[in-house]
Amino acid sequence: MASYPFANVDSYVAIFSRIQLYFHRFLLAITDWFHACVALERLVTVIVDVKFNLAKSKTMAKLLIIVISLFTCVSFLHDPTHRYLIDDDEEQRTWCMVHFTPSIGICNSFINIFHSIVPFRLKLISGMSIIGSSAKRRGSVKKQNSYMEHIKKQFRKHKHLIISSTVVVWLSWLCLV
Questions:
Q1: Torsion angle of alpha carbons 124, 128, 131, 132, nearest 10°?
Q2: pLDDT, greater one: 87 or 56
Q3: Where are the transmembrane segments (predicted)?
Q4: Which residues span the domain enclosing 34?
Q5: Would residue 123 count as lying in a domain?
Q6: What pLDDT digit, counting tens, does each position of 36-49 carry?
Q7: Are 60 and 38 in contact (CB under 8 A)?
Q8: Which pTM was predicted?
Q9: How many domains does the chain fold into?
C-alpha cells in the first residue's frame, strides 16, 4: 500500500494527480520501449548495411509506435482503478492511496519488472551484437589485426551502448530500494 499526500487541495486536483501518476508510469515505460526499438533498428542497420530499406523502416516505426503505446497503456490500466482518496481532517490533507489485492499486486510487480528488464535486455543484446558484427566485418577486411583486437576496438567505440542501458537499470533499481 502506497500513499501520496496532497495538502489542502480540491478533490478534482487529487483526481487529476491520480491520473497524472498513471501517465508518469506509462511515459517512463514507453520511453524505455522506444529506446529499445531504436537500439534494435541500429543493430539492423549494422547487420544489413547498404541493403537497409529506409521506407520499410519508417513504416515499421509507425506501426511499432502504435503497438507499443497500446500495449503499455493497457498493461498499466489496473493502477488508476485501484487508487482512492482519503481526506485526513487532522492534518488537513487529501491522500491518494493505492491498494492491490495479492493477485493484482503480483501482476503489478510482474508488469513493472517486465517493462524494465525486457527493454534493458534488448538494448544490451543489441549493443553487444553491434560490437560483434562490426568486429567481424572489420576482421574480414583488415586481416592484419586479430579478432580480439577488433572486438576491443569496437567495444571502446560502442561502449556507451552497453554502459548507458546498464546505468539506467541500475538507477531504477536503486530507486526501488
A1: -160
A2: 56
A3: 60-77, 97-118
A4: 5-144
A5: yes
A6: 999 999 999 888 88
A7: no
A8: 0.77
A9: 1
